[in-house]
Write the structure tokens for this entry.
Amino acid sequence: MTINQLSIFIENRQGTLLQVLDLFKRAGIQIIATNLADTVEYGILRIICTEPQKAFEALKKEGLAVNMTEVFAVEIDNEAGRGADAIASFVNQGVSIAYLYSFIVDGKGILIFRTDNPAWAAEAISKNQLSTLSEKDLPSLV
Amino acid sequence: MIWNQNKECMSTDEMRALQGRRLHKIVKYVYHNVPFYRNKLQEMDVTPDDIRSIEDIHKLPFTTKQDLRDNYPFGLQAAPKSEVIRVHASSGTTGNPTIVGYTRKDIEVWSECMTRCLTAYGVSRDDIFSVAYGYGLFTGGLGAHYGVENLGAAVVPTSTGNTEKHVRLIRDLGITGIACTPSYALYLAETMDHMGISKNDIRLRVGAFGAEPWTESMRTEIESRLGLKGFNLYGLSEIMGPCVSYECQEQHGSHICEDHFFPEIIDPETLQPLPYGEVGELVFTTLTKEGMPLLRYRTKDLCSLMNDPCPCGRTSVRMGRILGRSDDMLIIRGINVFPSQVESVVLSMPEFAPRYLLVIDRVNNLDTLQVQVEVRQEYFTEQFDTLGALGTLEKRLANKLKSVLSISAKVQLKAPGTIERSQGKSKFVLDKRQLK
């Protein structure tokens, strides 16, 4: 139901993003989706990749501020309105969403999000029979 | 005009004799009332009877800020508590502020000296004078206030903040004099610009500026923008507060009220006295203070002393501009800030590495303080995965800094290992203000 996402604290300085991406390149780990949230001085780079555990170790060894967070990955049909439907089922359950990003793979839309009420989100997923990705699905996405 | 012709224009010989008598008396006084000094003098095998002239001052021990801290809060107080009528406090480096108690006579001397300053600036009973130093534990506000009242001019206790209202008062009341930090004077000028009020709409003619280092170019700018003549005002709370020295119309050094505060310049390394004209650390001995008299207090301010005759008629020794500090204290918006204060706050929060950089700048004539800290790798955990959480962490540090430093600092989070490691303490500070 959830997958591991890597969050990396990076400063708004030239070269900091490349430093992270280079690390993935050298380790041969493929990035599936990424999102960069920024403030004036720093940002959080969020990454879904094929081997999160291995990437986590590599980033840590490099001395970067990185953490691994469980996020929900909900699969939706590639049609107008399906995103709204999916989010509605969470909202109805009282789930608030901290951040969200999405991508399309194999004709399916994937919504990645974090919530501070994971138990309610899980409830909403089973109640509405939403399909989700789990850790073992990651390698097959590339 | 000269407020106290008798003291300010006394012949040098007479002044030295007076200082000698007062020094003997004050040494005797602290010997009998302050165990700290009695012990120090006994260790050095000096008794009050060994102090017969002002030259004997070299036999006396120095006093440092650390001594004040070690004897917190009232250890160096000589007067009994019942004689103390006011207490001020200035910021300390490790949480302990410096406490100074004043007797009624101390307040009288302070007011007298402050009145000498104002008179030298050309302020008289006919002036309306705004005191825009902070009123409170800081000595600036109340110190200047009592001087203006003692002179007989009308004091407007503006204090700091609410600058637009201040500008309106300056215009509407026809305020002619102001005491504030030089950077606040420039901020006042900016505010006037925004409000569409020009220097021709106001009647300011005298400014008493101090509590932070400033330069001749700042003086020129303040004078041209506010249409006044700006004078230096020097003081420190350990010795008294604003009033210790002041510029006259000649503006060639600041006259020291040396019948009350005896100045010396020493080499901060060897502690040996330096001759007139040489730059070293300024040291003061309070000759008449009752509450907390200090012997040879090391101010850490670097400057030189001058004794050549001043055309204004005053004979007192003058001090040059403060050229720097012999310690790492910073003066930001008039407030004393020690890097070690920031360090203690950063160390108290496990989320940050024990490493920081203070960046001080002057933007639109106001000092800014930025504190850069490294987020510790192991503390960048799941809970800090959102910008909101990082923002809250920033705010927590900013609030703690504000309560310790008494001024706001902007916090900047940095990635682990990005703040340069250094050996020297001064590397923790990047002062971009060019005040020299």
